[in-house]
Amino acid sequence: MSEAVIRTDTSPPGLLASLDPLLREWLPRQRWFAGKGRPVTGFSLVAATELLPADSRLGLHHVLVRAHQRHTPAGGAAEEPGDCYQLLIGTREALPPRLAPALIGHVAEGPAAGRTAYDALYDTRPAEVLLEALRTRARIGALRFERGEPEPGQEIRTGGIRGGLVPRLMTAEQSNSSVVYGDTFILKLLRRIVPGVNPDLELPLALAREGCPRVPAPAGWMTADLAGRSWVLGVLQPYLQGATDGWELALRELAKGEDFTAEARALGRATAEVHTALARALPTVTLGHTQARRLADGMIERLEEAAQAVPLLRSYAPALRTAFTALADLAAEGRTWTAQRVHGDLHLGQCLRSPDGEWSLIDFEGEPAKPLAERRLPQPAVRDVAGMLRSFDYAAHSAEVRVPGWAESCRAAYCTGYAEAGGRDPRTDPVLLRAYETDKAVYEVLYEARHRPDWLPVPLAAVRRLSVPEPA
Predict the structure, then answer these.
(1) CA-to-CA distance for 443 and 451, rounded, in angstroms?
(2) Per-residue pLDDT reduced to its tens digit, 91-139
(3) DSSP notation for 143-183
(4) Are the C-beta atoms of 80 and 103 separated by less than 8 Å?
């Protein structure tokens, strides 16, 4: 594919207006749409770029659009501009059966009148356009496509990105969209985007500079320059062929009744190696009394909000609150903690085990629901540890056959491995660990109550355990 096929002009006027009624129905049904439960009342265009002309056999438009939704505050119903979403919209005269799952709708008016609009990431040709743009460092309207530095032995001329790789969309449910090219690269397209430095690109780049092998180095990335600010749109990374994510592997071993402690220990070592490299690559800070008090207050506030929303949590709230007040009390006595950049949303599903047994950490976006500035704040490394400990608990309760003591053994092995790789054993700071694990369990209770009530017993079991602190 030559560069000439990539258009540099913006999309024709009237495109969004013609798509508006279709997107109102289609967008809320997507797994990655964050505003579920509130109707979309309209859209405002952030940017639109024509990648393939609308009047060709296949039209292709890159669209950044802000969804407006109705909400009902105390003062009455109101409309507010919601999140900004990245869409790759294709148009065809007719949609072949293989693209039926991608259907957005039939366009009645505007520049694409009479054509069918669909999610173009399902289609081979549009996905090829994105890889070619990355390979050639294209500039298309406000869009910027960049390449990473080639690894030793890679083709210098293209930064190791070669054309001709067959794309396929990963259909597993996730909060973004991913396209695999051959078995060489995976492109993660962020769906809900905000301006600023995104940790999903920032942290892997920093780790690559440190030579940390536990995180795949970005091979390329997409951004948009709008109103003097940069928006990260996607990251291209090596595809770890044959790798299994930690969640699938844990459930598989549980189903066979196999011991998982060796893997948990190795995963603990991998986590500590990443934390050590992040602490070298990016600034660390010291959390003193004021910062720790603020941290504990935030945890208490989240507990109170969750207890209001989930009545089953209320009887445990006073005991859980002691996990946070104990942290504040330690800080008042002069205890300090080191905070650094962390993964921010670590669990078994964010870890990949290669066929040779090596573990890698992926998806450094953090919790997408939180503001970008908050996701980039230095935090105690034990926050990631607590997330993984909770993940072992979830895996144990998700297995068809329960294995007594499985989660406890994995939790202990993970902490042991973490200490072995140069990280301090998280269990030597039980107050901080209990506070973060309690905070995570409270979040899980609220999430499951709202979205997956059948799973509510899992975090409630942790809440019962955490409400009775272990003896020192």
Answers:
(1) 12
(2) 999 999 999 999 999 999 888 889 999 999 999 999 999 999 999 999 9
(3) EEEEEPPPPTTS-GGGTT--S-PPEEE--S--SSEEEEETT
(4) no
Query: CA nearest 217: which of 236, 245, 244?
Result: 236
Count of residues for the chain? 472
β partners of residue 168: 180
Centre a 10 Å sphere on the Cβ of residue 443 and count the other Cβ atoms it contains: 18
In DSSP terms, which residues pair with 90 in a beta bridge?
60, 118
Per-residue pLDDT tens for 150-172?
554 434 333 478 878 999 999 87
Phi-psi region of 242 (alpha: psi -120 to 50; beta: other; left: phi over 0): left
CA dist., res. 35 & res. 77, Å (int): 16
What values do phi and psi take at 67, rounded to 5? -90, 130
Segments in 355-425 forming alpha helices (H): 372-375, 382-398, 406-420
The closest of 75, 60, 57, 70 to 11, measured between CA atoms, is 60
Rg (CA), the chain: 24
Phi–psi pair at 234, nearest 5 degrees = -170, 160
pTM, to two decimals: 0.90
- Assign 279 to helix, strand or coil: helix
With tokens 């952030």, the residue in question is: 46
Residue pair 233/223 in contact by the 8 Å Cβ criterion: yes
Q: What is the residue extent of each domain of the chain?
A: 3-238, 244-466
Q: Which two tokens stand for residue 240?
A: 């770890």
Q: Which residue's entry shows tokens 């964010």?
A: 350
Kind plus residue range of the DSSP H or E element containing 208: helix 199-209
3-state secondary structure 77-137: CEEEEEEEEEEEEEEECCCCHHHHHHEEEECCCCCCCCCEEEEHHHCHHHHHHHHHHHHCC
CATH of domain 244-466: 3.90.1200.10
